[in-house]
């Protein structure tokens, strides 16, 4: 969809940082990194920005100075607060999240119970405020309705994918209906939808069209920041000799780890090492059982909880990154691998074709035989011969140049 940019900055932007607040202290996912990149960009600009987050106790609103300070503490550039008693009383919350909640409440210029959200936003934010939600979190009727009550407010939402609606068999029980209701609210309230790829736009608009009018949309590929490698931070169990292969991502059915386990089972004891890097997800008991059954001499090794630097070091040293996913919204691990100079074998899906172009090798994600043949062949070659084409990773500067001219 072709639309013209207004090219005039709004009187204020309001970034929803609910996802980052909830996931503080965990290994950042791709979606987390997007929300963090938006926060970093907006607090660095000489333009008014506010931050909104849903907490277990209600809502917090941070002004520009508060959001900047929160970003510093979230990223370790400043010391986080010790959790107050109220945060410590909340069950099931890791210590880092308790600290982040304490910081958010301390830095807030205003706090409200759920019923007071609209009044709080109306009191502090100017007409024409531009609300940005990039994390698929907090897309509730209460929040979107409260923002809409600000005169001339504009609501922009970044959609990463609609995979839960396309592949419900891969999702946690009960999450598909929740996601569907979120997307229905996006269709109802959004003035603009930001898409990470043309493929995501096409798939999302097909879904939204079933429910009514489709909001206008723009496409801007996500940026990638090269992660510094850190071999010192690697655990002893991650020490392997090349050639080895690596796959990165949550161990869930959509990522198709079962295919790779089949390949390595066929390759036998002389197979190169396969590193499976990512936390365990959901609906994947058969794969978990196969991983649990691996012996100490197995040619497959499961690693989780790695730092960004340690993971980057493993990717950089790998013979190739393997990415046999059934579906992706963007495919950040493949982009990061190519940026580090590591070859990529991935599924032949439209998202990868759009983002990676000629820089990856595409295989049928349903064929164990094809993957086995290619992996066996690549394991015997010098890695430098496996590069297809040079790759220029998309940048956040280019992303924000597009997005912030519309929002």
Distance between the termini: 16 Å
**Fraction of residues in H or I helices:** 25-40%
Just give the CATH class of the largest domain. Answer: Alpha Beta
Number of helices: 17
The assigned structural class equals alpha/beta
Regarding quaternary structure, how should these chains be classified? single chain
Number of domains: 2
Give the gist of this structure.
By secondary structure, this protein is α/β, with parallel strands linked by helices. The chain is built from 17 helices and 14 strands. 39% of the residues lie in helices and 15% in strands.
Describe this structure in words.
The protein has 407 residues and is α/β, with parallel strands linked by helices. It has two domains: 13-219, 3-Layer(aba) Sandwich (Rossmann fold), CATH 3.40.50; 231-385, Rossmann fold (3-Layer(aba) Sandwich), CATH 3.40.50. Helix content is 39%, strand content 15%. It has helices at 18-23, 30-44, 64-74, 85-88, 95-107, 117-124, 141-148, 163-166, 175-189, 198-209, 257-267, 285-292, 308-317, 332-339, 350-356, 368-379, 396-403; strands at 13-16, 49-55, 58-62, 110-112, 130-133, 154-159, 192-195, 216-219, 244-248, 273-277, 300-303, 320-323, 344-347, 361-363. Strands 4-3-2-1-5-6-7-8 form an eight-stranded mixed beta sheet, with helices on both faces. Strand 2 (49-55) and strand 3 (58-62) form a beta hairpin. Helix 3 (64-74) runs antiparallel to helix 5, helix 6 (117-124) packs parallel to helix 7 and helix 11 (257-267) crosses helix 16 (368-379). The longest helix has 15 residues, at 30-44. The radius of gyration is 22 Å and the shape is globular. The two termini are 16 Å apart. The relative contact order is 0.11.
């Amino acid at each position: 969809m072709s639309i013209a940019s207004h090219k005039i900055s709004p009187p204020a932007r309001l970034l929803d940082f609910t996802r980052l607040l909830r996931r503080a202290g965990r290994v950042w996912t791709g979606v987390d990194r997007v929300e963090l990149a938006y926060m970093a960009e907006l607090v660095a600009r000489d333009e008014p920005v506010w931050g909104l987050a849903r907490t277990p106790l209600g809502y917090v609103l941070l002004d520009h100075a508060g959001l900047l300070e929160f970003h510093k503490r979230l990223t370790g550039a400043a010391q986080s607060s010790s959790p107050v008693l109220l945060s410590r009383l909340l069950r099931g919350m890791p210590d880092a999240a308790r600290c982040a909640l304490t910081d958010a409440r301390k830095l807030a210029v205003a706090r409200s119970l759920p019923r007071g959200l609209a009044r709080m936003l109306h009191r502090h934010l100017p007409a024409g405020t531009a609300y940005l939600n990039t994390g698929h979190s907090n897309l509730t009727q209460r929040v979107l309705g409260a923002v809409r009550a600000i005169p001339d407010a504009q609501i922009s939402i970044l959609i990463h994918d609609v995979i839960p609606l396309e592949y419900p068999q891969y999702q946690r029980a009960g999450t598909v209906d929740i996601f569907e209701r979120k997307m229905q609210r996006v269709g109802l309230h959004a003035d603009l939808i930001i898409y990470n790829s043309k493929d995501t736009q096409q798939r999302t608009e097909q879904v939204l069209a079933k429910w009514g009018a489709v909001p206008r949309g723009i496409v801007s590929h996500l940026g990638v920041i090269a992660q510094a490698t850190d071999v010192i931070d690697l655990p002893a169990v991650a020490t392997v000799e090349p050639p080895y292969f690596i796959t990165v991502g949550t161990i869930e059915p959509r990522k198709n780890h079962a295919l790779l386990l089949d390949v390595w089972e066929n390759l036998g004891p002389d197979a190169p090492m396969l590193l499976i890097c990512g936390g365990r997800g959901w609906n994947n008991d058969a794969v978990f059982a196969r991983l649990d059954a691996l012996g100490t001499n197995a040619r497959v090794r499961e690693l989780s909880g790695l730092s960004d630097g340690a993971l980057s070091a493993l990717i950089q040293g790998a013979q190739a990154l393997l990415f046999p996913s059934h579906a992706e919204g963007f495919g950040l691990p493949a982009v990061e691998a190519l940026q580090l100079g590591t070859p990529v074998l991935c599924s032949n899906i439209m998202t990868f074709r759009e983002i990676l172009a000629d820089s990856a090798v595409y295989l049928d994600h349903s064929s164990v035989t094809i993957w086995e043949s290619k992996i066996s062949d690549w394991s015997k070659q010098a890695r430098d011969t496996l590069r297809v084409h040079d790759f220029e990773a998309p940048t956040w500067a280019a992303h924000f140049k597009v997005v912030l001219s519309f929002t």
